[in-house]
Structures are given as structure tokens and as C-alpha cells.
Write a structure and sequence with these properties.
By secondary structure, the chain is of the alpha+beta class. It has a single domain, classed as Gcn5-related N-acetyltransferase (GNAT) (Aminopeptidase, 3-Layer(aba) Sandwich). It is 35% helix and 30% strand. The protein contains five helices and seven strands. The strands form two sheets. It has a four-stranded antiparallel beta sheet with strand order 1-2-3-4, with helices on both faces. A three-stranded antiparallel beta sheet has the order 5-7-6. Helix 2 crosses helix 3. The chain is globular. The protein starts with a helix and ends in a 6-residue tail after the last strand. Pfam families: Acetyltransf_1.
């Protein structure tokens, strides 16, 4: 975790709504990631989804970690899942620049969104992953079920956030 703290101290954390100039670079990164994961989404569709965060109440929020050298170091989204409308809050689009992986940034980004979900009064978060179950399990996420999402088998995981009434 010491590496995480040092790396996080170097980065600027913002939201897409606060920094809309990052929309197209972020859309490109996420588009490429979706291709690698086997469920591509046309770039214009992704841009429209991200644009909805900026101009309207989409219910989504993407946190960006910006490197001082002027690039996106990582990102993660929190909001309704387009593939499963009405299914509550989901963590999605976790991505860390390859050169910065295994330094705790992914963990840090997830923790920021978990805290945001708690502030919104969410009782539970969900996510799906094809091959990162161990990473999320180490953060306290629990496997909920197996599913086919985007035509690919994946594990749906959940994270209980505790009693929000206290």
C-alpha cells in the first residue's frame, strides 16, 4: 500500500464532469480496453455515454487519475450499468495505464468510488469481471453468480456497503 500512497500523491483526481476535456481521450482508452476484453463498443456510442455524465443526470460518475505529465493514469466509473438498467449501482471501466499497474492505483480508484457509493446511500455495489476476480476479492468483493455479459462468460461480484441508516 505504500506504493499506492506515493503514486496517488503524484496524481490529480477529478471527475469527467469536472474535466470534460478528457472525454475523447478517455473514450478512446475505454474503447480499446473493451476490444481487448472481447466486447467492443463503437467509439461514438462510448462518447455519447460519457457525454451524458457531463450534460445530464445519467447517474454515472467517472473518476480520473491524471498524471502530472499530462495523461490519464487511470479511471473507474460508478453508476447504472447500460447492459442492466435498473440493477442498482455498478463499478465499471476500471483501467490503469500499463506502466503504472501493480502500484495500488486500481485499489485506490476502487476505494474512492466505494466511498462515493456510500455517500449516495447505496447498500451494495456490483461489478462484473472476466478475469480479475482475485483482485476484487482482495478488496472485499464476493462472487455472486456467473453470467454472460456482452457474449462473454464473467463473474458478477458484489460488495455489501453496510447499514447506511447509522
Amino acid at each position: 500500500m505504500a506504493n499506492s500512497c506515493r503514486l496517488a500523491e503524484q496524481l490529480l483526481f477529478t471527475t469527467l464532469a469536472q474535466s470534460p476535456g478528457w472525454l475523447e481521450p478517455l473514450a478512446y482508452i475505454l474503447s480499446q480496453q473493451r476490444v481487448l476484453e472481447g466486447h467492443p463498443l463503437p467509439l461514438p456510442t462510448l462518447i455519447n455515454r460519457l457525454q451524458a455524465e457531463i450534460v445530464g443526470p445519467s447517474g454515472a460518475s467517472t473518476t480520473l487519475a491524471l498524471h502530472p505529465e499530462g495523461y490519464i493514469a487511470g479511471c473507474v466509473s460508478l453508476g447504472p450499468l447500460h447492459e442492466r438498467p435498473g440493477a442498482g449501482l455498478w463499478l465499471s471501466n476500471l483501467w490503469v495505464a500499463p506502466a503504472l499497474r501493480r502500484q495500488g492505483l486500481g485499489r485506490h480508484l476502487c476505494q474512492r468510488q466505494v466511498q462515493a457509493a456510500k455517500r449516495q446511500g447505496a447498500a451494495c455495489l456490483q461489478l462484473y469481471t472476466q478475469d480479475q476476480s482475485a483482485f476484487y476479492a482482495a478488496l472485499g468483493w464476493q462472487p455472486a453468480r456467473q453470467a454472460i455479459i456482452g457474449g462473454r462468460p464473467c463473474t458478477v461480484m458484489s460488495l455489501p456497503l453496510g447499514d447506511q441508516s447509522a
